[in-house]
Amino acid sequence: MKKECRPLQCSLFALILATSTLAWAQLEINSSPTVVGSGARALGMGGAFVAVADDATAASWNPAGLTQLERPEISMVYDWNWFSEDFSSQGHKELSGSYETRFSGLNYGSIAYPFPWTLAGRNLVFSLNYQRRYDFDRDLKFQYNEIFSSSVNIIQRNSRYEYSQRGALGALSPAFGFEITDTLAFGIAVNLWDHDLLPDNEWKTRRTVRTTSRINGQLSPTSWTKLTINEDYKNFDGTNYTFGFLYKPTDRISLGAVYHTRFTAEVDYVQEWGIQVSRSPSLPAVKTRRKQKYTFPSAVGMGVAYRFPNDKLTLSFDVTRTEWDQFIIYDARNPQTQLRRRSGITGLPKKQSPHDPTYTVRLGMEYVFVNERKPRQSYLPSLRAGLFYDPQPAGGRKSGPLGLGRVTGTPDDYFGVSLGAGVLIKNRVNIDLAYIYRWGDEVRNDTFGLAHTAADVDQHTLYLSTVIYF
User: Fold this and answer.
1) 3-state secondary structure of 8
2) Fewer Cβ in 10 A, N or C end of the chain?
3) What does the alpha-carbon distance between residue 9 and residue 277 come to, in Å, rounded to a whole number?
4) How do residues 34-80 score in pLDDT, each as one tens digit?
5) CA–CA separation, 417 vs 359, rounded Å?
């Protein structure tokens, strides 16, 4: 049941929100926001896998690649993540500091089964897949000082902020690939973002602001306040589709294309906030509940791969375009009418927040240590490496003497490198390991909404995966 706030409570809450420039209304994705698949082998190649897609993780990259599987397979991928933000601010030195978040978990799991009898002998492969697509974990703890002056008074306000976000979104995806001709294959994956199937598809934010105020150096009557805002997002429910094509004009060259459809998901939103004020009686917490809708953007990717005649070296190249202007939060019952349709990137009203699409470019290689003298190797090792440019959607606001300018939608530049290794044991078990380092310099100026304030971001991820053939 919704509780109405008392006049004092409402006015204090409005005052704090109105005078604080530090607020978060957007959804912060801390993993790469570009739709990519999983698997230590593919990610060890920098994620340039759309035109390769020849193992049990194929449905996450290009479901048409499933047609290349000849035996039943199962796969599992686990990851470890270390994420850091090193902020610097010219106008507010107290904001400068490094903030870290670490998390790990199951990233992917699948089972694939090729059907031996199909129309005209064409390959038909079905797979059932789970992938954790988006990670939201983030932690910030900092101090923020403000000074306001008038002809009579000088007001100093010192605030300590604590912010945390936890959660993730994943999809359960039945998929199949079908060979149309000897050189052309088609595939489709149905991505079910359903809380009934995946109850952990949720996230939450926790914000606490402790503020001390002084007027002309003296503590004010309400000198100390504590604002707490808790938000929970549950029962996420939506569906989208991934379509893929794979074309092999020769035994050495393969071309791939993949399209991820835009989709809108519903979520149950619960907000609870409360205020404690010095020299005032305790005020009851206020809780509101309502439905929200999140529209996630569509993306299209193209890839090409070339396998050298000795079958040892493969080079691959991918380009992906994501339409971030489609990332919108619908909040029909938001009391702030201008925020009922807002950007999922900046949290600003959508009319004020246009966004350019991002283009991700990935280059990868794999070298397999094939011994021509042995027709069958008990252990077949391989090495991989990759480079990528992986921009992240942002406000793109420029710093000026009066603060940040208008939103231009220019994305932040992120780059990355990857290294990987694997071994196929007795043609039955494949074990792969990959390390990815992704970084961005002078990015995330939307976090605090202040001019000349940005962060250097470093992301380290370790993937361990196995594929078992039957």
Assistant:
1) helix
2) N
3) 9
4) 878 999 999 999 999 999 999 889 999 999 999 999 899 999 999 99
5) 17
